[in-house]
Design brief:
Length: 339
Amino acid sequence: MATVPRTSASPTPDDGVDVGRPARTRADWMDVLRGVALIAVVLFHAGTLLRFAGLQVPEGLQSVNGAVAPFRIPLLVLLSGLLLPRSMSKGLRRYAGGKLAAIGYPFLLWTVLYGLVYWPGLGVEALAWLVPSLLVGGSYLWYLLFLLVFYAAALAVRRLPRLPVAAVFLLLAELAPDGTKYLERPAFLFALFLGGWWLAERPGLLRAAVRSPLAAAVAAAVLGASYALLDMSGYGPRALPGTLAGALVLAFCTHRIARSALLRPLRFTGRNSVVFYVVHFPVIYVLVRCADLAGVEDATLLVAVSASAALLVGAALALARPRSALVRALFTAPRRTGP
């Protein structure tokens, strides 16, 4: 690998991380795409949680959720891979500590909160089963656990060529039984993570692809063919062409206007993705439960209200986070202050 010039952001010799390239500033269009993916996640859960009110997902929302399935978690993972060199350039200690504080800590904290909200009043025997289940990702928080594992695995494969390793994981995903959460899904998503990492190490190629009308047109054609010919609903390799093509189309459509005031809410959501992700599910769940007790039967109205409330609560907490140590402690491990 190439030698990184020593800067304040570069790792020290005993950090043990060979980043290969200096960190680059994250692009605004990445935050916009992350915001789009987060809103898709919120809408998905606003629909699936209707079951707790005895309601069916509206047909229109079902169609939307099916269409955007390749751009929820897969897009978030791909974007995380694109930002990996920036994270690794901080050195092993800061890299590991940062991921544990910003991903591992909220995963553990909100797993506990999720258990308290979702399964109140459980006995000791039920808790003995529930706690291990939740700690291995048995909740909506599984994405954070997987992402933490991917960041750890990146250290193990950092000296290997990205695309061949990604191909191995794609093959593993293809060989795994369809729909398996701990086989097919992580293998496919880690391949995407590695693909994003590979692109991030080729910023010239990434910029050219995002700005090219021809590349966007080809990607749009691939996306249309993928919807027509492939199964885009799961986490298998067959969804890969559509996920990559759709990501390129979205990036092309947004990169020139990513800094506009119109897209500020999406940028804000993307930059505070962990806040919105961990908060949305409990908010929707509580509202759906309350609506059930109140006898609400309008599924479309309930989806609109619960999704909006989840985004508003997430936004309020994200705005309060820089000003309140208590709010920060909900999403990032408190730092020790010493002499």
